[in-house]
Amino acid sequence: MTAGELAIVLAAVLCAFGFAALVVVLLRVHDTLRAIRHEVDALRQETRPLITDLRVSTDEARDAMHEAQRDLARFDRVLGSAEAISGAVSGSGRVARTALSTPVIKVAAIASGTSRAAKRLTRRQRRNEHRASGRRDSGRRDVGRKRTASSVVPWKKGA
Q: What are the extents of the domains in the chain?
């Protein structure tokens, strides 16, 4: 064997070892990829129901949000109506107070004056009756009552 032939045989053997090592590495990569595919499939199996639940929850949240927006818009309209009614009522209250305050004050004054006049007239009538009967009215409430210390001093018992 010549040196050239030995070099070719040695190169062929080294290439065979290289290809063998490459085949071993590729088989390990293939096994690893198969394990990864299996794990990905298992992960998909586990996450499908979760993703479905998440979609359902998202749809429900979206519906609740839209309903809340509709309710808020309705509440805003009701609040605007309440403000308008409040303004109208306060305006009518002012008008009613202005229109009725003077007549009510006058009626109260007339009633008070009439009551005082009636009291004075009845007092005068009593005095005239007493004078006609010969008795003198001293203006005291305890006319005809015996005056004691307890009736004169207000803080004593029986006053």
A: 3-132
